[in-house]
Design a protein that fits this description.
This protein is mainly alpha-helical. The chain folds into 3 domains: 1-35, no CATH class; 43-101 and 231-276, no CATH class; 112-181, no CATH class. It is built from 10 helices and 4 strands, in the order βββαααβααααααα. The chain has helices at 55-64, 66-69, 75-93, 112-131, 134-166, 170-181, 194-211, 236-245, 258-263, 265-276, and strands at 12-17, 28-32, 43-47, 97-101. Strands 1-2 form a two-stranded antiparallel sheet. Strands 3-4 form a two-stranded antiparallel ribbon. Helix 4 packs antiparallel against helix 5 (134-166), helix 5 runs antiparallel to helix 6 and helix 8 (236-245) crosses helix 10 (265-276). 3% of the residues are buried.
């Protein structure tokens, strides 16, 4: 019995069964109304175009702001002024915009050479779109043709090698073919709840206590520590050094990102020194 099996909700537009010729099986050709899922669903995010930031103009605006010209005497007001002025200037120079980000999973054959080739193509495209010169257009199209050829070669070589490595392993071969025809979507769903996490950690602590119940008690030797009853004022040089060696990590509480704070170190180090002191 030669059949074609579909889901109950799948619409089958036509089915043709040819009479057996080379064997006792028939060839079945069916037309299905398929609706493929969109793999690149956009997610809306709020971003800033930091490439458009003029650091020198921002530095001049900071020097002319009340944060530098007339800072508050109260430490709480000074912190609030630092936060408000920097956030206002950042919104003025690089306003936040709502953009749609479409995650595109990288293909397994896409390597460093492909990445460099794509970067070069985009650079030539930007040059052409800014100048609209015919020579730049020819260079861009030539680079685009070379990129397309390299990508097709990489694609064919990767999958040819991947399928050849499977040999007579049917399971591995089907896995490669399935990935080639339809990349598997990430359908993992976290089914854990808060009670599961709490139970896990309670059990883990109980296991550690039971496994170390026969261990000898830890020897804790007390020691004297100096009392911090007096602090020395910090200097601008110390703040500049700390900013230089600090990792460029940021969070939403920072009025400006850390990498920008480092570039404005000469301007903001005296302000941060006043905050600390």
């Amino acid at each position: 019995m030669d059949v074609i099996v579909t889901r109950a909700e799948q619409k089958v537009e036509s089915v043709s069964v040819d009479p057996p010729m080379l064997s006792d099986h028939s060839q079945i050709v069916a037309t299905l109304a398929l609706r493929l899922p969109h793999q690149h669903v956009g997610v809306r995010r709020v971003r800033r175009c930091w490439r458009q930031l003029d650091v020198d103009r921002l530095r001049c605006d900071i020097l002319e702001s009340t944060l530098v010209t007339n800072p508050p005497d109260n430490v709480n007001d000074l912190f609030a002024c630092y936060d408000d002025v920097l956030r206002h200037l950042i919104d003025l120079h690089v306003p936040a915009k709502s953009v749609v980000i479409r995650p595109r999973p990288q293909s397994p054959w896409f390597d460093g050479e492909c990445r460099d080739m794509k970067r070069a193509t985009r650079r030539l495209e930007r040059v052409y779109r800014s100048t609209h010169a015919s020579d730049n257009y020819i260079l861009w199209k030539k680079q685009l043709s070379v990129q397309r050829t390299i990508f097709q070669t990489k694609y064919a070589d990767y999958w040819t090698s991947a399928i050849a490595e499977c040999g007579h392993n049917g399971k591995a071969l089907w896995s490669k073919v399935n990935c080639l025809l339809r990349p598997s979507a990430d359908t993992s769903i976290l089914s854990h709840i808060a009670d599961d996490f709490a139970t896990f950690f309670v059990r883990k602590v109980a296991d550690i206590r039971s496994s170390t119940s026969g261990a000898p008690s830890a020897v804790i030797v007390p020691r004297e520590t100096p009392l911090f009853c007096q602090f020395e004022p910090v200097s601008v040089e110390e703040i500049s050094h700390l900013l230089a060696v600090t990792p460029s990590k940021s969070c939403a509480l920072d009025p400006i990102p850390t990498w920008l704070l480092k570039r404005l170190s000469n301007t903001l180090s005296p302000v941060i020194t006043s905050l600390c002191n």
